[in-house]
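dumping this here so i dont lose it
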């Protein structure tokens, strides 16, 4: 297992302390991110290019305004190493616990992280989408249920915009369930 402090692919090999200081992350968030570990053969975090990301967002019923805001807030390991450090851990936390109910929710990043921080979980969902779809297929979940379940991302974006007047996601307890493959939309129920 690779630990959170020696993960291959860390932008600029940042330490947890440096990331916490730079982003102003809470101790609760650092406790969550600090416990993340993953097998050495775990898939590397790869974000879809803009065209593929826009297509996946549209398939998930994300509206045009939120698609545009998401694409404009693309994290990059070279330009945003501390945010990439967080994104990498969120991604690997979900992959390592696929099929297990989450023990908590995705905590809000500080306001100072701006649009990139508010869209970090959206990018995590985009990177995780093929993995959760493959998990659904292995479990015999029908394609229609899989597709509709992943539209929870659009609902979270709509809810956040409605409540805060801003694009992105502050926090979520439903998306970790959905993207771990333990939350499904069956009719109007999730």
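and the seq i came up w/
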């Amino acid at each position: 297992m690779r630990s959170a402090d020696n993960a291959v692919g860390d932008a600029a090999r940042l330490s947890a302390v440096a990331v916490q200081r730079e982003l102003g992350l809470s101790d609760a968030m650092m406790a969550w991110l600090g416990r993340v570990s993953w097998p050495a053969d775990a898939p590397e975090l790869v974000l879809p290019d803009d065209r593929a990301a826009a297509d996946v967002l549209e398939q998930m019923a994300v509206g045009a305004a939120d698609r545009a805001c998401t694409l404009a807030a693309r994290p990059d390991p070279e330009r945003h190493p501390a945010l990439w450090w967080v994104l990498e851990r969120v991604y690997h936390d979900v992959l390592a616990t696929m099929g297990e109910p989450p023990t908590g929710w995705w905590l809000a990043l500080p306001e100072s992280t701006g649009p990139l921080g508010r869209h970090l979980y959206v990018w995590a969902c985009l990177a995780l989408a093929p993995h959760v779809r493959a998990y659904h297929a292995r479990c015999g979940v029908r394609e229609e249920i899989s597709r509709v379940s992943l539209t929870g991302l659009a609902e979270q974006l709509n809810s956040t915009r409605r409540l805060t007047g801003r694009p992105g996601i502050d926090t979520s307890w439903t998306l970790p369930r959905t993207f771990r493959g333990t939350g499904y939309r069956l009719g109007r129920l999730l």
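Residues 1-10 have pLDDT under 50 and may be disordered.
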